[in-house]
């Protein structure tokens, strides 16, 4: 009996010891824990939605060629754009054959043959393109970056041609195995009938022959606080110190990483010098790392399209905001700019973003406006471009601050061969 009593007392003592240890480590409910995990400082609140990389990889425009030099353009989010793109994503392309880009007069063929052209501004590596389209693996093709896909058919050749143009501009790859019929292509092309007609100019860009109607909208804005970004980006915000710069900006640092706040605290730049430069760059892994980073540290508010600038030792990534079907341009003097990341060996060295965001779904005012077209538009383009070659002409939103938030004003935008982007004045 004494042995049983001893065992009972021993069990009670052990239980009491465990309970006491628990409260010493974690304290009582409602008080602060002595043991802190890294998750206490990462994503402490829901600042924005997470996105998959597939959701930020899409063509900036879809050009429908209808033969007899007739064309129209569908922009992202529009009904036929989404319908055609989703169907193409479900079809397979394989057995790629390489040829010189000078092997044919592609501009002339676009005038004659019905087809669909997908434009990827800045180019997209094949390994990333395979995440949104079904492309067979090919060692030669796999190393390419594609900036344009053209799928067409010809009366003289009853088959579907699928061409993938290299961003280098010297070669084009044709898929001889295409999971599309001539009737499939013609059906997609027919969707362009009755929509705003475009003409292909001698300079190689498209302008509408009729007024292009675009929605002008005023939207209230929200703004993340510096404290939110501090809590999100630093493992222990209490260990950071604040430095006031002469230009009015502030820098928060934990002696390793830094967070710079500019433009009346509407814009931030985060830098982590621990990122390692390397000659072995994997663009796909860098992009995936960038999307994971944004998901973890701030998230996405609305729709963004990804473009890339590839340096020798890093991958520069731009995440461009969209409203409806059109890109929202930067307004740097107001601290309203697109997201930018510099990724080195899957590690983010620089992360820049605006603290402002649009409260979509709470629009204050909407109205349809017409953008100029035809000869008037072409004359404006020539005046803006001067002697510089054009890369593209496209509609976009110019943001304008208002008392209630931000007004998105539709404008024609010209991208020059120098990389500069200029907007045409609206009347």
Automatic annotation (TrEMBL):
Residues 3-416 form the Regulatory protein YycH domain. Coiled coil: none annotated. Transmembrane segments: none annotated. It comes from the Bacteria. Pfam families: YycH (PF07435). This is Regulatory protein YycH domain-containing protein. It comes from Paenibacillus gallinarum.
